[in-house]
Automatic annotation (TrEMBL):
Protein known as: VOC family protein
Residue ranges occupied by any VOC domain in the UniProt entry: 2-113
Pfam families cross-referenced by the UniProt entry: Glyoxalase
SUPFAM superfamilies, per database record: Glyoxalase/Bleomycin resistance protein/Dihydroxybiphenyl dioxygenase (SSF54593)
InterPro entries per record: Glyas_Bleomycin-R_OHBP_Dase, Glyas_Fos-R_dOase_dom, VOC_core
Coiled-coil features, chain-numbered ranges: none
Amino acid sequence: MEILGTTLRICVDDLESAIVFYERVTGSQALRFDRGGVSVAAVGAFLLMSGPEAELEVLRKVAATVAVKDVDDAHTTLTAAGARIIAGPVATPVGRNLIAAHPDGSVFEYVDRKPAY
């Protein structure tokens, strides 16, 4: 599995003020979208999320997002290494993802930028 980078996931109460801070820190413009009732802004290596507490409670369980070259390859590698696939692979607005629990209990999202077949 080829890892291309990671994104830190941060749940915030005030998305607008968080965006201002992270745009200044990173020098990047926020890319905004909504997903399942949660407002999301990708700013540099940070993924800011704000929304109903019930939705955020689930999102907080995922430690980070790991960008990979191919989610199918990640699926194969993770499963062979003993990870438990919680969800996916599924299509997203920009590619595909899966969520995996590692044997130590940590949970990560793996994403690629390949269109769904």
